[in-house]
Design goal:
The complex is a heterodimer of chains A (294) and B (248). Chain A has 294 residues and is mostly helical. The longest helix of chain A is centred in the N-terminal third of the chain and has 36 residues. Chain B has 9 helices and 13 strands. In chain B, helix 5 links the parallel strand 9 and strand 10. Chain B is of the alpha/beta class and 248 residues long. The longest helix of chain B has 19 residues. Classes of the chains: A mainly alpha (294), B alpha/beta (248). Chains A and B meet through helix 2, helix 4 and strand 2 of A and helix 1, strand 1, strand 5, helix 6 and helix 7 of B.
Chain lengths: 294, 248
């Protein structure tokens, strides 16, 4: 990166370290923090939406929809995460490629499955073999987001379902007595009040989601844990101009600080959110807030 | 007239497909120097990178390198996420049940034990990378196998005393022992394992296998493959020599 880094052997102390920490490889490491944050930022709202949808489905008066909601939450919560993360992206990828194969290559006579091989026509590949590497990365990232969102959506569905049941029945009955339709009751009475009950459970889920991000590497995306392991591993002179021993402990220390920092930040944000949502609620926290202001 | 247009369209389509198929995605681990590793710039580098690029040039293919961890390197090949594996993978009958190999581009080479002390117990806890021929060998010869996801971790396990010795390709260990300032040492006799290192392909990809076989033959014939082996693995490493030039 810097001109002075041309000959790392001649460097010492701080200047060696500066050059070492600004190699292309380290820049990729720094970028991977962004990848993780992006995954969190994209996955959390999608999972929340899926959870909301799942909770609504399980409460639905229409039986098949209710079954669908129950099957979704029960299945996803019952299968180990790692199995799910290995299964969903592969199944999704092969499913999409198979669909494209049927549409784009109707004349293709060879079977798609040959022994253990899965081969679709070149035009059906997702992304195409000739596509630049970033398209492959984005595609893999999108599959990862889907897998994370499905798993965490199921847990969120359960939390939100429980929170909806926790809203005092008297509130809903009163709404009914005022002549609100079930839809209006849901939107105006149930949903605004259930968040405060859902928040502790959702906070837990968010924390688990932060910790689950290293599963990204299982899906072929280079996340911070991959780079920490790769960069920290001992390097011989042939493989790197900056040979060093086993430095993994230092890199993992950085990750430790990152994850703890994320946790602290999340706690602060959720504490504020909880306070805000408690205003005017018929809960202990809401009551305390009311007393504090009067 | 109609059939003519259809025919022309089909021709254009197949031509387009052939063009699209010309990019070959080459899978590798990127954690096994000097076979393959990630250099300081963050690019895939090493013997296999150089060899693979040369083979692609000779076969007139456009190649793109893809990183994949060792554990899932074969499953991702058969599900067509990439088209070849060049990751220091030895040709073994077990692997040949699932994937196809080109002829070897590194002759059958030695695996060796490395430990902290010269009298280390080779029947004790032996570290090896998961799903390698070395791991299979340790399990067969009576040592207690400690498996690790990457080769680097197997060496680290010896350094911190978790394992009595590490068993891996001699070429991989050589540089590590040389630069350990006497901390690490080779123990026991080297063991010849496997049928050499070859490029892994899907069994259904017979055309691609023939193409790469031809390119490897041409590099064996003009001696450039031996030269490359010596450049990366040192003067003492096994080369194909005159034997490789048979049938040129």
């Amino acid at each position: 990166m810097f001109a002075s880094c041309a000959d790392p052997k001649a460097l010492e102390g701080i200047s060696w370290l500066v050059c070492y920490l600004t190699t292309g490889k380290h820049l990729l490491f720094f970028v991977s923090f962004g990848t993780v944050l992006l995954l969190l930022a994209v996955t959390a709202p999608i999972a929340l939406a899926l959870g909301f949808g799942g909770a609504m489905a399980t409460r639905s008066g229409f039986a098949p929809l209710r079954w669908l909601g129950r099957i979704y939450t029960a299945m996803t919560r019952g299968v180990p995460d790692i199995v799910f993360f290995l299964f969903v992206p592969i199944a999704l990828d092969q499913g999409l490629e198979y669909l494209r194969h049927r549409i784009k290559c109707p004349d293709w006579t060879e079977p798609v499955r040959k022994g253990s091989d899965f081969v679709v026509c070149p035009a059906a590949k997702l992304p195409l073999s000739s596509a630049p590497e970033w398209e492959h990365q984005v595609y893999a990232f999108a599959l990862a987001v889907v897998a994370f969102a499905i798993v965490f959506g199921a847990f969120a569905a359960n939390v939100i379902h429980g929170a909806m049941n926790a809203v005092p029945k008297a509130q809903l009955e009163t709404a009914d007595a005022y002549g609100m339709s079930p839809r209006q009751t849901f939107r105006r009475i149930l949903v605004p009040q259930m968040w405060v009950y859902a928040l502790p459970g959702l906070t837990n889920l968010w924390m688990i989601l932060i910790k689950a991000t290293p599963l990204l590497f299982v899906l072929g995306i280079e996340d911070i844990v991959y780079w920490a392991r790769e960069l920290g591993g001992s390097k011989t002179t042939g493989a790197s101009a900056y040979p060093h021993g086993d430095w993994r402990v230092y890199y993992f220390l950085v990750l430790l600080c990152f994850y703890l920092g994320m946790t602290r930040l999340s706690e602060l944000v959720f504490a504020r959110l909880y306070r805000r949502l408690s205003h005017g609620q018929a809960t202990l926290a809401g009551e305390q807030l009311r007393k504090a202001t009067t | 007239m109609k059939t003519f247009i259809l025919g022309a369209a089909a021709l254009a389509l197949t031509a387009g497909m052939a063009f699209g198929a010309d990019t070959i995605r080459m899978g590798t681990e990127g954690a096994y120097p000097p076979f393959n590793f990630i250099n300081d710039k963050g690019e895939i580098d090493g013997f296999e990178r150089k060899l693979g690029d040369e083979l692609c040039k000779r076969a007139e293919l456009t190649c793109e390198w893809v990183k994949n961890d060792w554990d899932s390197i074969i499953p991702n090949l058969v599900s067509s996420n990439y088209d070849t594996i060049m990751a220091g993978m030895s040709i073994t009958p077990e692997r040949e049940k699932v994937i196809a190999f080109t002829q070897n581009y590194i002759p059958p080479a030695d695996s060796a034990y490395v430990a902290l002390k010269a009298d280390a117990n080779l029947k004790g806890n032996i570290a090896a990378q998961t799903s390698t021929i070395q791991a299979g060998h340790v399990a067969e010869t009576g040592g207690t196998l400690l498996e690790f996801a990457t080769a680097d971790e197997t060496v680290a396990a010896v350094r911190n005393g978790e394992a009595d010795a590490v068993f891996a390709d001699k070429e991989f260990l050589q540089k590590i022992v040389d630069e350990s300032k006497g901390e690490l040492t080779f123990v026991g006799e080297p063991v010849a394992l496997g049928g050499g290192v070859g490029m892994g392909l899907r069994q259904s990809d017979t055309d691609l296998k023939a193409t790469f076989d031809k390119a490897i033959t041409s590099m064996k014939c003009d001696g450039s493959l031996d030269k490359l082996i010596i450049e990366y693995f040192g003067e003492k490493s096994k080369v194909f020599g005159e034997e490789g030039k048979q049938g040129c």
